[in-house]
Structure formats: C-alpha cells, structure tokens
Design goal:
two-stranded antiparallel ribbon, 7 strands, single chain, 543 residues, globular, alpha/beta, 5-stranded mixed beta sheet
Length: 543
C-alpha cells in the first residue's frame, strides 16, 4: 500500500532525491582539508599536461609553462606514469585556463571535480540498479546506501584516486550492461570509451570490467545460441576500440603502447617494493607486505554500517542458493549474468588484496571501488526479505525501519561533519581507537584545528610543530593564503608555540619531534577534535 501510494510521485521523489544529494555535496565541499595525496596527484597532472602541450601545441605550451620545470613523462625513474591521471590532467588544465594561483583554491576546484563526478556516477548506479531490479524505489535506496555511507561520503570530496576509480568504473559497468542488453554500435562505442577511461585514465585495474562483461556476453550468446557470431564480432570490435581509446587517453601509451601497458601491470606487481607503507592495525605497527590475509575484510566489517552488512549477507546467500538450486536453467537468464558480474567485482579484488598484500594500507580505501556491488547485494537481500514478508502491513514496517536506518546514518554524517572519514561501527569497539587503527591518515583534521589557533591567537607569527608522520607543507594548504602566512611550520623548532598531532603513526618514535615528557611539563592541552569518543587531532599550547 505504501509503495503504491509513493509510486504516484516517483518522478518527483527521484528528482528531489538527487537534488538533495547534489545540494548537500556542494555546500560541504569547502569544509574538507587538503589530503596527503593531493599535492602529488596535482604534480602528476602537470607532468602529463606538460607532455601533451609539448607534443600538440608547443608554442602555446611554452608561453604558459614559463620557467617551470617538470620531469619527463617517460623518465625511467618516474613510476607515476603507470597510474591514471586523466582527472588530474583535466584539473591542471582548468587551473591554467582560469589562472588559479592560490593553492587552496586549486584544491577546492579539485574537490568540486571529484564530487561532481561521484554525483554523476550515483545517477549511473541508479540506472544499473534499474537494469537489475526494474524497481525505482529499490534503485534509489541503493543510491542512498552509497551516499550515506560515512567514509564514502567524506572521501568523495578529496580522494584523488580511490573514489574517482569507483565512479568511472560504475560508468563502465553501466554502459557494459546496456551493451549486454542491446548490441549496437552506439552502445559499443560508449562502452569502449568508458573502458578506456577507467583502465588508462584512472587505474589499470579497470580491465576487470571488459573481462567480466565481454566474457559474460560470449557465454550467454553461446549457451542461448542468440546471435553468437554477431556478438563475438562485437566483442572483438570492443577490445580493439578499448585499446585504441586507451592509447589516445593515456599519454604514457603514445610511445611504445604495448610495452608501457604491460609496464602498468609490472608496476602494480612491484608496488610493495616501491612503497613499503606502515599501518597501525589492531594496536601494532606492520608494513603493508606483512598485513594478515583478513586485513581488508576486517576493515570493511568495522567501517560499514552494520545493518548494510546484514543485508549484504542475506543478499549473497540468496544469490548463492539460487545459483546452486537452479544450475540447469540459470545460464539462460541474464539476471544471473548480471549478478555474477557483481559477485566477481566483489570477490576477485578481495582475493587479489589477499594475494598482493603490498597494497593493503590506509584501511580498505584501495578497495572502495567494490562498494557499489556490495550495495547491490544489500538490495538483493532487501528485495528477497520483502518477497518473504507476505502481509503489506509488515512490509510497511520494514520500509519504515529501513528509512530510520538511513536517517540515523544521515544524522551521524551531519553531527560529525566533516570528520566522516573517522567512522567506525560498534564492531570496532568504542574509545581510544586511535591507539588501534589509522584514522586520519590523510591529515584532513589539521584544517579545523589550525583554524582554531587562528581564531584564538592574534599574534602575527605562530610557530607550530607537527608530532606525527604528516608533513606540514601539505596540510598548510587547507588554509587560505593570509592564514598560511601567519604560521611558521618548522619541524626543527625545539619549543614551538604549539604542538599539533593527528596521531597518524605517532607510535613510531622517529616521527615524534617532541617527546611526551616535554609536552607534559611545558605544554597544556589547547583543543581536541573528538569523534565518537576517539580523539583524532590535538593541539598543545606552550605554557
């Protein structure tokens, strides 16, 4: 009864749902600080833009470049060429076109780009859900599950790699499913283009999309005997176009494309040797290569709202039981192929993270791209629970209960804004989680505490020493130009005006510039940022 009534207004509800998401995002952009990855990604964008300018428009390029010097994109020591930088290159180009000079304004621009692309991907995710479920209300619930997942919400503004990969992979999967439904050249070109964008423009891991979708198309066509030869030809065309578009999109493939494409996989294989990154995990410091096999699964379980995980377990159980009990007929049903694609998008990366543990650091952010497919199994669980409930009144109670869950997550996001990146559920425990896990590894909380100093100290020059691994020359760009000039960030000052820390890897003594004894005897607590009983940033002021 409730759904039949709501269906009368579905167009308005869908429109205003996305309008709400866009509005909430755009008013939140400016509240997030500068993350530790952003400066390096900005530089990578300019390296790529510099190479493009030299090749395509050398005279125009030299006029804008001036006396700035960038490493050559093909320099053997420059490993970042194997990563995708299309969005970084785009933002670098916009930075030049609009003559944005202040670094803080640059990063606000980038945060707008990241969020808008994430927002557009939510629309695409809605359409994926429509293909799978054909029920608009289940699809819009899926959108809100993603958007109101605290860590995904926060990262959608400042994460230069993980959330963009999540977003562009959604586009690729969406157009792949459209091609699966209807084979024509328009769908083929769209899918090939987004394949290239996700593989070469963002991360080579994006190759999982054509591998899963094109193999599913071939298998389905072979079993059902529906246009097998024609569809096989389309698959070949798709692979060719994907490769051609990949070369066009990725400048590091313009020379020796095959060798450099293979080099991207080699770089991933040797990632742990290049970047040996420590983690604070369950109270112990361990290098990424030494993380336990359950590292990513554990992180997912303690940072995802518990009810979502319960729905997911129902959904994955329904999928597996249905697959095993209908083994003879299930290969004739496209829904089975869709669900198997989503299942593979979840399982293959998790298995990969267990095998290649070198990429296991900073929680599970490198696996954020699997989250939309986690959510699809939540929706499968949701749908099957509704089908199990016979009486309309009980169904209405379940809808209301689920709405309360979403509103609770929204209230948590608003209450703890802009610190949603520090979300843990009850499975993680309660207080002092900063002694067990890395929380603010991006160094975002410095923005609010440095602004607190600005608001409460009128001196022209204020000396600050950071007592964790984060570099002051990075987080200072969370502030505007005038406020930055007031701070003296010098890690060699023995007794600064203030000591600040976000506790990131401060268990490693070499990153502590000032000892606990000095802090206790000569400084007083000035301000703390506390989220759910966990202190994520602290300032000490000299007595």
């Amino acid at each position: 009864m409730l759904i039949r009534y709501i269906n009368l207004y579905k167009k308005y509800l869908i429109f205003f749902s996305f309008l709400f998401i866009l509005f909430l995002g755009l008013i939140s952009v400016k509240d997030y600080g500068h993350s530790s990855d952003e400066s390096a990604q900005r530089h990578a964008g300019f390296v790529e833009l510099n190479y493009i300018g030299e090749k395509i428009a050398p005279s125009l390029h030299s006029r804008y470049k001036g006396d700035r010097v960038y490493i050559d994109l093909y320099d053997n020591s420059y490993n970042e060429k194997f990563s995708g930088h299309s969005l970084n290159t785009l933002s670098a180009l916009l930075e030049v076109i609009f003559e944005i000079e202040d670094r803080r304004d640059v990063f606000i621009l980038k945060h707008h780009i990241y969020f808008i692309i994430f927002f557009l991907s939510l629309i695409s995710f809605y359409k994926i859900c429509q293909i799978r479920f054909e029920k608009w209300y289940i699809s819009i619930i899926g959108v809100f599950i993603i958007f109101l997942s605290p860590r995904i919400f926060a990262n959608s503004f400042y994460d230069p790699k993980d959330i963009p990969f999540l977003s562009i992979l959604i586009f690729s999967i969406h157009f792949g499913l459209i091609l699966f439904k209807k084979m024509n050249f328009k769908n083929l070109i769209y899918y090939s283009l987004f394949n290239a964008f996700v593989i070469s423009g963002i991360r080579v891991y994006g190759i999982i999309s054509p591998v899963l979708i094109l193999s599913s198309i071939i298998l389905y066509s072979f079993i059902t005997k529906e246009n097998f030869k024609k569809n096989l030809l389309f698959v070949i065309y798709c692979l060719i176009l994907t490769f051609v578009f990949s070369i066009i999109i990725k400048p590091s493939l313009w020379e020796s494309p095959i060798a450099n494409f293979i080099g991207s996989f080699t770089y991933l294989k040797e990632f742990g040797k290049i970047w040996s990154i420590p983690n604070l995990f369950l109270g112990e410091i361990i290098l990424s290569k030494d993380t336990p096999w359950f590292f990513s699964i554990f992180w997912i379980s303690i940072t995802t709202p518990i009810f979502y995980t319960v729905l997911f377990l129902f959904g994955i159980s329904f999928y597996l039981i249905n697959s095993l009990t209908n083994l003879r007929s299930i290969f004739l049903n496209k829904i089975f192929y869709y669900d198997s694609i989503f299942f593979s998008l979840l399982v293959i990366p998790i298995i990969g993270s267990i095998i290649l543990r070198e990429s296991s650091f900073n929680s599970w952010r490198h696996l954020y791209f699997i989250y939309p497919y986690f959510v699809i199994f939540c929706l499968i669980g949701f749908e099957n629970i509704l089908n199990f409930i016979k009486k309309d009144n009980f169904k209405n109670y379940f809808y209301v209960f689920f709405l309360i869950i979403l509103l609770f997550n929204l209230s948590w996001i608003i209450k703890n804004h802009p610190y949603q990146y520090s979300y843990f559920n009850l499975l993680a425990g309660k207080d002092n989680l900063n002694n067990k896990f890395d929380i603010d590894y991006h160094g975002l909380s410095y923005k609010q505490n440095l602004e607190f100093i600005i608001d409460n100290d009128d001196r022209d020059k204020i000396s600050v020493v950071n007592n964790s691994i984060n570099k002051p020359q990075l987080f200072k760009y969370s502030l505007n130009k005038i406020d930055r000039k007031r701070f003296v960030f010098n890690q060699n000052i023995a007794k600064p005006d203030y000591i600040i820390t976000n506790y990131f890897l401060d268990n490693i003594e070499k990153y502590k510039k000032i000892s606990a004894d000095v802090i206790e005897n000569e400084y007083v607590l000035f301000n703390e940022i506390i989220v759910d009983g966990n202190t994520i940033n602290t300032i000490y002021k000299k007595k």
